């Protein structure tokens, strides 16, 4: 049965289809030819429709098919999404009859959309270079050598000649020393040593090294963990090159790499804050240049790491050296290396001995005040070191307590404190990690945590329409990213993955309730949500608005609405599979 929808002009059909995938990916000429092969079909509410043959696009209304619902702009049929559908309301569809569908189903764009996994459909390639796939041997620079008896004046002249900031010193027994421009400044000039001082007197021995087959991302993590900026690269014990932190970061961006170095070199609090305030705009500029939010979040996290480390160093200079070892532990999105343009402070502090608490209380408050002034707001929930300082024994006890008595508050603590990453300090917290990972072997605890993960349902309401707040906004953090983070945490605990990163967790091999294909789709969905959050915050930054994760639903394009519904359906399916394992929700 046809209605007035079939009498709408040809241009309107093209304009409608241009707003939705896969047709938004067709050129104008191809789309025009496709529209000429379409028919318009009407089905009243409750009517059945066989979508096994041909191609069907919902123009207006809603269909139910195989337990899922499809609304405006969504495509079924095509030999993939097939079966007996039912119209939930009066529904108009564009139909490609079977005799004409064959040629269109072989179109690469349409075929890819219908047959590929969700993760592939959501993929939006950017221009970013992934440091996890590049060996350091491909990006290192040649190392220049000094001799132990070379004077510091000669070393400085050689650095200037080659426009470099470090020299390697080969010693007996295959050991290397290193002297940097920072050593010349802090160990020679600041100490008033003469230019004739031999390099051997001020160099660092032994220099930390890394094999040339290591990924560049591992090298960057290694350098930040050990607070070094020049990393000699070796092959079979022989020196083959050198890397700098800025060199690695500049592979992906000029901006963030420079800011990291500036943060680490900041002479005082005011200078540190000035550099830190540049981070949101630098990150936004790189997104405008084509970088994906996933890579930018990872890069920005190194800048935030540098901000934390330098802040801790400056506060120690103010208050005096720490009386004992400690570990400053990041939590939340910065710990996962997945923050947007407006991360807040989420962290706690682990100290070696209770007697050191009088020092660390004002220490933590001073660090937090500087970070607020630098643009990192305090955590609204108060999850910060000044309120959460534990001895190592207390920390381990808390991990075990939350696992043994999983009441609502304990489970909330788990979702916060089970995503940690140590950013600074010398205290060894391996025992705390072991206590946290032991939760994966506790069936009762994992059942409670699973109930929590499946209890927060995606915001799909009646007939799978996206539900919004009264102000017609959608919170991309709570109603999107957090849902996948919870599922990734479950998988990580089951397989013993230590990383806080959602990406690393979902890629971790091992037996769990999440199938590898499902985890790949969740990864694609997570990347898409990060990009959506970045686009939102870019617009807010440009418009001078406060940065948030609340997205006005009317700002979503047609393809974005389709993709978002697909993501929520995916999360809902995963939760439906997990729920029976723990007796429902």
From TrEMBL:
The residues forming a coiled coil are: none
Keyword Transferase in annotation = no
Top-level taxonomic group: Bacteria
Q: Domain CBS, which positions?
A: 139-196, 203-259
Please name the Pfam families in this protein's record. CBS, DUF294, DUF294_C
Asked whether the UniProt record includes Transcription among its keywords, one would answer no
Question: What keywords are annotated for this sequence in UniProt?
Answer: CBS domain
InterPro entries hit by this protein? CBS_dom, CBS_dom_sf, cNMP-bd_dom_sf, Diverse_CBS-Domain, DUF294_put_nucleoTrafse_sb-bd, GlnD_Uridyltrans_N
A single Gene Ontology MF term assigned here is: [protein-PII] uridylyltransferase activity
Recorded hits in PANTHER family, A to Z, give: CBS DOMAIN-CONTAINING PROTEIN (PTHR43080:SF2), CBS DOMAIN-CONTAINING PROTEIN CBSX3, MITOCHONDRIAL (PTHR43080)
This chain belongs to which protein, by name? Answer: CBS domain-containing protein
**Which organism is the protein's source?**
Deinococcus cavernae
């Amino acid at each position: 049965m046809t209605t007035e929808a079939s009498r709408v002009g040809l241009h309107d059909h093209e304009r409608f289809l241009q707003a939705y995938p896969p047709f938004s990916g067709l050129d104008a000429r191809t789309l025009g030819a496709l529209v000429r092969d379409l028919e318009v079909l009407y089905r009243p509410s409750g009517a059945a429709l066989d979508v096994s043959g041909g191609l069907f696009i919902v123009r207006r209304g809603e269909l139910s098919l195989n337990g899922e619902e499809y609304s405006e702009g969504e495509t079924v049929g095509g030999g993939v999404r097939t079966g007996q559908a039912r119209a939930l309301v009066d529904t108009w569809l564009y139909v490609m009859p079977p005799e004409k569908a064959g040629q269109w189903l072989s179109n690469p764009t349409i075929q890819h959309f219908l047959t590929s996994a969700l993760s592939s459909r959501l993929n939006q390639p950017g221009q970013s270079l992934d440091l996890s796939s590049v060996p350091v041997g491909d990006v290192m620079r040649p190392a220049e050598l000094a001799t132990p008896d070379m004077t510091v004046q000669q070393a400085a002249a050689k650095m200037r000649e080659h426009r470099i900031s470090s020299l390697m010193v080969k010693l007996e027994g295959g050991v290397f020393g290193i002297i940097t421009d920072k050593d010349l400044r802090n160990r020679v000039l600041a100490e008033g040593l003469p230019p004739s001082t031999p390099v051997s007197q001020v160099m660092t021995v032994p220099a930390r090294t890394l094999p040339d087959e290591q990924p560049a991302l591992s090298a960057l993590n290694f350098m930040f963990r050990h607070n070094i900026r020049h990393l000699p690269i070796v092959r079979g014990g022989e020196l083959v090159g050198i890397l700098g932190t800025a060199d690695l970061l500049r592979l992906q961006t000029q901006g963030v790499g420079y800011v990291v170095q500036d943060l680490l070199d900041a002479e005082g609090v005011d200078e540190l804050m000035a550099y830190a305030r540049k981070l949101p705009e630098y990150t936004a500029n790189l997104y405008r240049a084509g970088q994906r939010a996933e890579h930018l979040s990872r890069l920005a996290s190194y800048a935030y790491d540098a901000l934390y480390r330098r802040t801790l160093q400056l506060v120690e200079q103010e208050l005096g050296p720490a009386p004992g070892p400690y570990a400053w532990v990041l939590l939340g999105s910065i710990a996962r290396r997945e923050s947007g343009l407006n991360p807040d402070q989420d962290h706690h502090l682990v100290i070696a001995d209770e007697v050191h608490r009088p020092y660390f209380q004002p220490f933590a408050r001073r660090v937090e005040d500087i970070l607020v002034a630098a643009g990192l707001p305090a955590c609204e929930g108060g999850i910060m070191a000044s309120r959460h300082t534990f001895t190592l024994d207390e920390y381990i006890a808390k991990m075990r307590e939350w696992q043994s008595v999983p009441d609502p508050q304990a489970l909330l603590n788990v979702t916060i404190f089970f995503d940690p990453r140590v950013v600074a300090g010398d205290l060894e917290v391996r025992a705390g990690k072991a206590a946290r990972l032991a939760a994966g072997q506790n069936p009762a605890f994992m059942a409670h945590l699973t109930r929590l993960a499946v209890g927060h349902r995606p915001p799909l309401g009646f007939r799978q329409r996206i539900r919004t707040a009264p102000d017609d906004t959608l919170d991309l953090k709570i109603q999107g990213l957090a849902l996948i983070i919870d599922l990734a945490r479950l998988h990580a605990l089951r397989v013993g993955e230590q990383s806080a990163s959602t990406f690393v967790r979902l890629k971790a091999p091992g037996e769990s309730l999440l199938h590898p294909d499902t985890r790949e789709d969740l990864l694609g969905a997570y990347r898409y949500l990060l990009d959506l959050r970045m686009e939102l915050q870019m617009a807010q930054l440009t418009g001078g608005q406060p940065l948030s994760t609340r997205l006005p639903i009317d700002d979503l394009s047609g393809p974005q609405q389709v993709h978002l519904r697909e993501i929520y359906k995916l999360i809902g399916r995963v939760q439906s599979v997990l729920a029976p394992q723990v007796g429902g929700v």
